[in-house]
Design goal:
- The protein is mainly alpha-helical.
- It has helices at about 5-15, 35-50, 60-75, 85-95, 95-110, 110-130, 135-140, 145-160, 160-170; strands at about 20-25, 30.
- The chain has a two-stranded antiparallel sheet.
- The longest helix has 19 residues, at about 60-75.
Length: about 190
Amino acid sequence: MVSASCRVIVKDELKKLGLHFVFIDLGEVEIMENLTHDQNNKLKTNLRSAGFELLDDKRSVLIEKITATIIEMVHYNEEFIKVNFSEYLSDKLKRDYTYLANLFSEVQGTTIEQFVIAHKVERVKELLIYGELNVTEIAWKMNYSSVAHLSNQFKKVTGLTPSFFRQMADKKRQPIEEVGVVKVSNPN
């Protein structure tokens, strides 16, 4: 679960089964009742049909928590975390970062750092398309040490500079009133 709408769907599925929750957070639900085998199977089936998966084993749950924490931090926090991310993740999940990093790499086939970078670049793309912030403001917002650092990382992932990407994004979109209109150049 990575959004408010995901939480609503999970709440609805729990209510349908007459289950009461203590809390619902990103990637985690605590319910008051002990599930019977039948309730567990019904919950799995209902969540699967809604596009979710019920994770039972501790490793999968921890991977989901790592993923949800990264996504929440990068995409949903207004202010990017201004601390060392490894410390933040370790504190939030109450686990040693080396253990988290090794488990994530083993299961996901990529490092936490690469996963964070991929999400940061995706968020930068979104901010570039919105056009409300310049690249310097985006670099600050996303906690890059400099515009050059953002640009280098962005180019390494996308093959494009942020400025070129922004230009491409602007060219991809046209005002509604210009869609389908043929422009005639004036030779004067």
